[in-house]
Amino acid sequence: MTNSHPQANVGVLTRRHHDWLLIKAARDRDLYIGWSTVTDSPAWAGTRREALAAGVPAARLNVADTSGSSSRNNKGSWDDAGFIAEHRGWLSRTRLGDYALRWLTGDMGAAFDLLEPSDGESEARHD
Fold first, then answer.
1. Which of 24, 52, 83, 87 has its Cα between 20 and 30 A from that of 125?
2. What is the arrangement of strands in the sheet containing 21-26, beginning at the earlier edge strand?
3. What is the pTM of this model?
4. Are the C-beta atoms of residues 126 and 102 closer than 8 Å to each other?
5. Which residue from 44, 14, 47, 17 is spatially nearest to 30, judged by alpha carbons?
6. 57 CB contacts (<8 Å, ≥6 apart)?
7. What percent of the chain has pLDDT over 90?
8. What single string gives the DSSP state of each residue in 93-121?
9. How many CA atoms lie within 13 A of 106 on its CB side?
10. Rounded-to-integer distance, Cα 121 and Cα 70, Å
């Protein structure tokens, strides 16, 4: 599969696509995130073309295009404010794409810098 992102491992599926929530990073951005609801972290990121080539059904991508995610309970929808990321902090939905690309390429410090502190915390965890 051709990787349109310069980062390593982005666009390459390492798990079955039905094991995670598919979220479109932004309405105007050709970037889809496979978000693990078990680990609260990205499992995959890629373009629509990469997702299709990896076997993600077009119908699942179409749902994410329309509602923001493939969730049936609106998790990750366009109206969702964000996510708790690995119990480290709050990830605003607007930062999801950048967070996933940084996280998946191993630039953890830069990824964690995008998190906001959880309730009662003065900063997001970087450890």
1. 24
2. 21-26, 29-36, 41-46
3. 0.82
4. no
5. 47
6. none
7. 58
8. GGGHHHHHHHHHTT-HHHHHTTPBPPTT-
9. 4
10. 31
Q: What are the residues facing 29 on neighbouring strands?
A: 26
Taking CA 97 as the corner, what is the angle to CA 67 and CA 93, rounded to the nearest 5 degrees? 55
Distances (CA, A) of 80 to 75, 110, 127: 7, 23, 27
Q: How far apart, in whole angstroms, are the C-alpha atoms of residue 122 and residue 119?
A: 8
Token pair of 49 as six digits: 């073309």
C-alpha–C-alpha distance, residues 39 and 18, integer Å: 15
Distance CA 31, CA 98 (A): 10
pLDDT digits (tens, 9 = 90+) for 9-40: 445 454 454 568 999 999 999 999 999 888 89
Closest to 93 in 3D by CA, of 79, 72, 107: 79
Cα distance between residue 104 and residue 46, in whole Å: 11
Residues 61 and 70: their CA atoms lie apart, in Å, by 7
Q: Answer whether 53's CB lies under 8 Å from 32's CB.
A: no
Report how far residue 92's alpha carbon sits from residue 85's, in angstroms, rounded to the nearest whole number: 10
